[in-house]
Task: structure prediction
Amino acid sequence: PVSAGPMAHVAAEVAALPRCETVPTIDASELSAAEFAERFMRPNKPVLLTGVSNGWRCRSEWTREDQPGERVPDTSRMADLFGDAKVLVVDCDAPLDTDLSRQEMPFREYARYWHARRDDSRGKDGGGDARLLYCKDWTFAEDFPDYPAYETPPHFADDWLNEYWDEQRVKGVGRRLGSHRFVYVGGKGTDTPLHADVLRSFSWSVNLAGRKRWLMVPPHRAHHLLDAKGERRPKDIERADVDRFPNAAKSAPVVVEQPGDSALFVPSLWYHQVRNETDCVSVNHNWLNAANARLSWAMLRDELEDV
Result:
């Protein structure tokens, strides 16, 4: 039986999930897809896989070596290749990160901003564009279907969500139907506020260059994020208003430092926020399959009953 209360169906699923407090790091070549499914996907536990993007076209063409062993985004090269593509850009200093606050621009214009950014080493008065603009949720694979930027790692290949949209295109229904394959390009200090993924799907994020810092809240502690009314969550756990979100600190997020050439598997129902510690370019997919469909269905049932 499902207990009464807000998000009761999700709460029942969370109670049945195994608890997890760590995010192990494993070389992708040492973990088969079947082992990943058994140890992490089905029990809904996160993992960081290294060595995933070697040989990817996007790694060689979208990044460059800045110093031995360190790669950085090459937005000039990307602008040469995809300059006319329309991308959505958010100002990370804006009070809200929503579709309404985003602006659309050609990627070439975003690349010009990138090279005009302020150099913090010269201080705040050193000149340059002081905005923190983040190119997010770029449906690159839909814009450039004939450009093989990367191959989905075999661990994440069982993807009902994107397979559905691909089947519709094969049937000739048309383009711009939908996609949950994204590219992100952001400078040091850009971020994505606290959220849980669309449809409470899984997600995987491959960092091609740079370093990201993730705060990930295990599902069994996510209720601590809510305000006293049980309606809102903070944008930033570490800067939450203690009067409005008195229990946010109890969520005790797991911290993950993600280097380049690595993939982070984010399970369903894990609230998370992400900050680019250095300039970054990454590829992200949201996805569903038999391992988490029930969790998405629980969320949808709760949303329907709340209408």
About this structure: The longest strand covers residues 202-209. Helices lie at 8-16, 33-41, 57-62, 75-82, 107-115, 140-143, 160-170, 293-305. The mean pLDDT is 92.
